[in-house]
Specification:
Number of helices: 9
CATH class: Alpha Beta
Order of helices and strands: EEEHEEHEHHHEHEHEEHHE
Distance between the termini: 30 Å
Structural class: alpha/beta
Shape: globular
CATH topology: Rossmann fold
């Protein structure tokens, strides 16, 4: 029997409030194995960050775990004791770097003092300052940062440096799985390249084993990921090896995502015209019936309006497409 590092089965997570019920994640099944980098792609509002927040085990207010199963290294994170989740799963087995995480640094504390607070909260005891600074300095060097960064306030660092500091702190305990959400979205192209290299270096150095990398940027996903799952309207619509998703997308939504990316030939000339996906993402308070992409799909038939595509398993090595015509 194969034991996956991350196993998600029919996961549902909804936002509930005065605005009604938003079906943010509505029946997602996927797996991630040791040593694998899985990309999660899709346009803004499709549920990528919601999925990451649910997998973290600590969803924010208004987001409610509604059902399904999430196993991290064999532990069901919504069934185990919260203290076990805090001490045995978070940081040790899994670490989560949310979107805009660089803003999580305390603006009135030097990085070294912020790290001390994190270590104290994580271990429950007063740590040795010298030992923590030595360990953190060595760890940050693996991310291309010099130890003097520890003496800085966040405002003294560039956006890329702050992002790498947050990733460094999140991986101090060598988690098996790193979940990272849009780490390059606020960075310039040079900083994006450094960020991707830093993540690959962490994996090569075996500081982390596997990664769930979330992004709407297809080009960064291609540089980093072994496999990709494409998300639309709270559901997974296609999965497969990263190169196959890029070179031979099966789902009409995936084809739309790929065709919206600028590509060039060796002479620097643009290859083909850019195409956009018609219409707008649906309101997740009232998702379309049948295939949720059918109102925007150029290939939709009458059957697509009523036929619900199957939930994908999204397992390693499998090419799957949730399309009525596939």
């Amino acid at each position: 029997m194969v034991v996956h590092l991350l196993e998600i089965e029919d996961l549902k997570g909804y936002y509930r409030g005065t605005f009604g019920v938003v079906f943010g994640v509505d029946g997602v099944t996927l797996t991630l194995d040791s040593g694998e980098i899985l990309g999660l792609a899709g346009e803004s509002g499709c549920g990528k960050s919601t999925l990451a927040e649910l997998v973290s085990g600590s969803p924010p207010p208004l987001l409610h775990y509604e059902g399904g199963k999430i196993l991290v290294d064999g532990l069901d994170i919504y069934s185990i004791d919260k203290e076990v989740l805090r001490t045995e799963v978070k940081c040790k087995r899994m670490s989560y770097v949310p979107q805009a995480s660089m803003e999580s640094l305390n603006p009135v504390k030097r990085i070294r003092d912020f790290v001390m607070d994190v270590v104290k909260e994580r271990t429950g005891k007063e740590p040795s300052r010298e030992e923590v600074f030595r360990m953190t300095g060595e760890h940050l060097e693996k991310l291309g940062l010099e130890s003097w960064v520890l003496n800085c306030y966040p405002h003294e660092l560039s956006g890329g440096m702050k992002q790498r500091v947050v990733i460094g702190i999140s991986t101090l305990w060598n988690p098996k799985l790193l979940i990272i959400d849009e780490p390059t979205s606020a960075l310039d192209v040079t900083s994006q390249k450094l960020m991707i290299k830093s993540l690959l270096d962490l994996k090569q150095a075996r500081i982390i084993e596997s990664m769930l990398y979330i992004s709407h940027d297809i080009t960064s996903l291609r540089q980093l990921c072994d496999r990709c799952a494409v998300m639309y309207c709270g559901q997974i619509v296609e999965t497969g090896p990263m190169d196959d998703i890029i070179n031979d997308p099966h789902h009409p939504y995936t084809r739309g995502l790929i065709s919206s990316v600028v590509s060039y030939d060796p002479q620097g000339r643009q290859k083909g015209a850019l195409k956009s996906i018609p219409g707008e993402p649906p309101d997740l308070r009232n998702p379309p019936s049948g295939c949720r992409f059918h109102p925007r799909c150029p290939d939709a038939t009458e059957a697509c309006k009523t036929t619900v595509p199957p939930i994908l398993n999204a397992e390693k090595g499998k090419r799957e497409c949730a399309c009525c015509q596939y």
